[in-house]
Write a structure and sequence with these properties.
The chain has about 300 residues and is an alpha/beta fold. The chain contains 11 helices and 7 strands. It is globular, with a radius of gyration of 19 Å.
């Protein structure tokens, strides 16, 4: 989670320095969901993260250098300079299905992966993330319905961060909890504190084990707060200051740090070691990305099939 925060902060610095030509999306507040859920998977499983799941990319083996290169439009990024953010930040060799900009369009793709696992008799699971706003889209309901009907090994993580761009949740839906939609489609639904990484891991691990053993899909609603605007250009003036102040006290990294300290697992020496390792990895990644060249314009149409 600290590596996620560090990469996120450094990316923001690069944007302000004019080294990132596109937009970036802050991960602040979402670290525990991405990391906790991804830890529940096995290497042979696949996942489809979205734009606030940087920790999932890192956990699966994508390096900070690759992420910086992507943001800086260098050929060292997965899209080789054809995109400048998490759109296109996929790597099937790491079991990462590239993020599809329009939510929840990663859900049908994940559904297809889960269907292939069941069709081939493989004990593998497909997991994806989506948002509260996306739950109002047709593809959300269609994906849950088909996953339940076919009893597919899929896990859907709904990150409820209170806002779909600038639309608050009370303007999005009338139901009390989005997880209630799981029952409507005939699958288990779980609610979890999205700022507690251990809780996220435990609930997701149960859903993953259930899916792997033939028990079918699950929907998990993880509650958190988006601590920045939709993207770097959005000051989020529509979010009440008091709401942000309340959620700032529930910062997922602070919660985890306090928990580990109280349990005697984390001391000042260990914290210093972690901080040094994170800084070293981020610095080395940025140096590598900065040395990665920009793409040759002559290759613009490479990989385009239609």
């Amino acid at each position: 989670m600290k590596l996620t925060r560090a990469v996120d902060d450094r990316t923001e610095d690069l944007y302000k320095q004019g080294k990132i030509p596109g937009v970036i999306f802050s991960q602040r507040g979402h670290e525990a969901i991405a990391v906790g859920a991804s830890y529940a998977l096995e290497p042979e499983d696949v996942l489809a993260p979205m734009h606030r799941d940087l920790g999932a990319y890192l956990l699966r083996g994508m390096t900070p250098g690759t992420i910086f290169a992507q943001a800086m439009a260098r050929i060292g990024g997965p899209s080789r300079g054809r995109d400048t953010n998490t759109h296109g930040l996929g790597d099937l060799s790491l079991g990462i299905i590239g993020y599809i900009s329009h939510l929840p369009q990663s859900m049908p793709v994940t559904l297809g992966a889960a269907f292939s696992f069941k069709y081939r008799g493989e004990a593998r699971v497909a997991l994806t993330f989506t948002g509260d706003g996306a739950s109002s889209e047709g593809a959300f309901s269609e994906s849950l319905n088909l996953a339940a009907v076919l009893n597919l090994p899929a896990v859907f993580i709904l990150e409820n961060n209170r806002y779909a761009y600038s639309t608050p949740t009370h303007h999005q839906y009338a139901t009390r909890n989005l997880v209630q939609r799981a029952e409507a489609f005939g699958m288990p639904g779980y609610t979890v504190d999205g700022n507690n990484v251990l809780d996220v891991w435990q609930v997701t691990a149960e859903a993953v084990d259930r899916a792997r053993s033939g028990g079918g899909p699950s929907l998990i609603e993880a509650h958190t707060m988006r601590m920045r605007g939709h993207a770097i250009h959005d000051p989020a003036n529509y979010v009440p200051k008091q709401l942000l102040e309340e959620w700032e006290t529930l910062d997922p990294i602070k919660i985890t740090t306090d928990t580990l300290r109280n349990q005697g697992v984390l001391d000042h020496t260990t914290e210093a070691d972690i901080a040094l390792k994170v800084k070293t990895e981020v610095d080395a990644g940025l140096k590598w990305a900065d040395s990665s060249p920009l793409p040759n314009p002559d290759t613009l149409t490479a990989g385009i099939y239609a």
